[in-house]
Amino acid sequence: MTQSPYWQRIAAKAQAAQRPFFSLAPMEAVTGSVFRRVVMRAAAPDVFYTEFTNALSITHPKAKFTTRGRLYVDEAESPRPIVQLWGNSGEDFTKAAHEVKNQGYQAIDLNMGCPDMAVIKNHSGSDLIRHFDRAKEVIEGARQAELPVSVKTRLGFDDVREYETWIPFLLQQQVPVLTVHVRTKMEMSKVPAHYELIDNLVQMRDILAPATLLQINGDILDYQAGLKLAKAHPGVDGIMIGRGIFQNPYAFEPIPQPHSTRDMLELLRYQVDLYDQFIGLGLQGHFAPLQRFFKIYVRGMRHAAELRNELMQTKTTDDVRAIIDRLEAKLPAD
């Protein structure tokens, strides 16, 4: 099951450039079609993922309509994202896998690391670290649509040492890609990522599943940091950036470039315009989640705190555009 032409193409392209492949982490209420296109315009990674979506909801007669926004992919998106699914039932994953394949998705990623308590109470996400049998059932269920099925997880649930059994178990499933956020569920993001264990993970992979691509996630802020980490740990195939994108929307730039206030405001305007287009399609969306992105664009500007507070008080996209217009009017002419 390890060999996957889809992932081989991604890995081969990166290897030809003598670098790891890079991806934007799947993030709830963040990595929908709108923000993926913003990052694509700024500096695109090799791989995008959707927000994580409940496998059961995808085919449920009533709930499936709530997943339309999460699963929406614009024709302009390139590369097409990988769909990330969560749940705990092999049967649910089989049904969901067939449905997302019908929608045009070419690969599936399984969420086995989410630390959210609502997900854990559903016996999903990082709770699967404590239930190997259920994790295996989920993997096998997702494979029934004959798409490549990768896994994203953490080192353990309560204790870092859990990785000594959990990671080998996942490698034995011969997934094409294993992404490891090098912290436990209990650690959340409150402690530094355990980079000291990466070489151990590489060694496990080399012994148990040499064809599996190993991707590392946790505290990697940008492309340059990812290159440095991969160089320090030979055998790492991929680098996943999550929260770093909130510090710099250009995090995937291979060669960092200076970006002006005008650049940032234009990128914000682009996101707001895409958001309106998204809502115009009749897809589910709310203005409040859009506000979480404002800090990305005002970081580093004069009076950034005040600007962010002002943006957080907006109620509509036109309110946001009015602030952008005012700020742009104060900028020197090009």
If you had to describe this structure to a student in words, what would you say it looks like?
By secondary structure, the protein is an alpha/beta fold. Helix content is 44%, strand content 13%. Strands 1-8-7-6-5-4-3-2 form an 8-stranded parallel sheet. Helix 12 runs antiparallel to helix 16.
Low-pLDDT runs: none
Shape: globular
How many DSSP H or I helices?
Answer: 16
Q: What structural class do you assign from the helix and strand content?
A: alpha/beta
List the secondary-structure elements in sequence, H or E.
HEHEHHEHEHHEHEHEHEHHHHHH
Name the helicity range: 40-55%
- How many DSSP-defined strands? 8
Determine the mean pLDDT: 95
In brief, what are we looking at here?
The chain is of the alpha/beta class.
Helix-strand blueprint:
Elements: H1 5-16, E1 21-24, H2 33-43, E2 49-54, H3 55-59, H4 68-71, E3 82-86, H5 90-102, E4 108-112, H6 117-121, H7 132-142, E5 149-156, H8 163-172, E6 177-184, H9 198-208, E7 213-217, H10 223-232, E8 238-241, H11 244-247, H12 261-280, H13 287-291, H14 294-298, H15 304-312, H16 317-329
Helix pairs in contact: 2-12, 5-7, 8-9, 12-16
Structure characteristics:
alpha/beta; 44% helix; 13% strand; single chain; 334 residues; 8-stranded parallel sheet
